[in-house]
Amino acid sequence: MTDHMNTRLTRRSFVASAAAATLLPVTARASVPTLTARPGQIRLLPDEYPETEVWGFDGQVPGPLIRLRQGQALTRKLVNQLPTPTSIHWHGLRLPNAMDGVPGMTQDAVQTGGDFTYSFTPPDAGTYWYHSHHQSTEQVARGLYGVLIVDETEPPDVDHDLTMVLDDWRLTQDGKTSEDFDRPHDWTHAGRLGNFIHAVSVPQVTTVRKNARLRLRLINVATDRIMEISLIGLEGKIVAFDGMPLLQPQTPERLFMGPAQRVDLVVDVTADEGEDALIASHERDGVFAIVEMPVSGSSTRRGNIPALPDNPHHRLTTVKDARKVPLKMEGGAMGGLREATFKGQRLSIQEMVQLGQAWAFNGVIGMPDEPLLRASTGETVMIEMVNDTAFAHAMHLHGQHFQEVLEDGSFGPLRDTLLMARAETRTIAFRADAPGKWLLHCHMLSHAAAGMRTWLHVT
Ligand SMILES: [Cu+2]
């Protein structure tokens, strides 16, 4: 598909194809509600194209919206009707290690015909998502993800609460998912980038009034693409990153969202009646509206946008006695990595390429036998991450959020995924609160598959 085609499709796709949202009833049931991973078909492109074959939870992309009240338990039985094993990772949620959904570390992959029941109570309100964590470069690209919202006890006063699921599809001319999930060129560069950026609004937008207040929950579910987003005809504040409230809401400028990152905004519609309020994507060949909200009617504009009620997640006050560990990120195209360890063997660059491996943490490609660090619960740890590569990376910690340690000694917002530009050094810290084996990896899923994975052991 050419850039020109992408241009046309991007602009035209939204109204035709915003997927219908399905709300699972959250009432108590005698039997455990299921999420069935299975093939399905969705309308991604305009009518003159065929539907696109996907893998989705309950055959849908995004999968069923899961919505809980803060303090409410989540229980879902994953049933696997795919031709390959799978699992579910509940991204950004604090949960028992055994519920984290990482095959080979916290559970066995769920085989075809098998099932696995996930059950836990998320302590924090916010915008989260769930996705396959098995062969995820392929499975997430095929559509195995969904939205998970935990509502605050007292949610902010808004007219519309809209989740925008931003994906980056690589489609063939006949609208099929391109099945090249492991091209060496993608894995050693910026990952498997698509040719069709597509937003799904949950629920679907019909019209909004001028001055209406919206909560927008943006989720970048792309396997590898950094989304560059701006709002047109909408004015307000960023109120949360990765689900966690900002103590002081920020005025949004252009938003750079790494894979897996979320941004919650509370905005007022400033576009006039008859115009559209827009969410726009900045791409190499131009700026495109990926969500268009027609403005019809008007109401009175509200006043200040308050911060969201805070979550019970720990925030750092000091890192004076923190256990420190360096994490050097190396490899990829145009990087200096010539030799690294993979499964206990020293590999040359030629051998890495043959094995489809490209990236290393501290000289080790892929999951090391020994964790990056061991910590006791309650201990504060600090990871100095040096990006000695020619590419950006989206570093994701499982199990709890971290904060960046800023140059002036203050702490950044709570996040679960940190977007690092090439050649950057960024230090994160957190109090290790949950026992278990927790992954730390690049959420550019092609990079993770090609080696950017390690783990922490909290006991
Ligand atoms: Cu990466």
TrEMBL record:
UniProt protein name: Multicopper oxidase MmcO
One Pfam family, short name: Cu-oxidase
Keywords of this entry: Copper, Metal-binding, Oxidoreductase, Signal
GO molecular function: copper ion binding; ferroxidase activity
Residue ranges of every copy of the Plastocyanin-like domain listed in the record: 45-153, 201-274, 349-456
PROSITE patterns, A to Z: MULTICOPPER_OXIDASE2, TAT
Residues of the signal peptide: 1-30
Keyword Magnesium appears in the UniProt entry: no
Class in the EC hierarchy, top level: oxidoreductase
Keyword Signal assigned: yes
EC number, UniProt record: 1.16.3.1
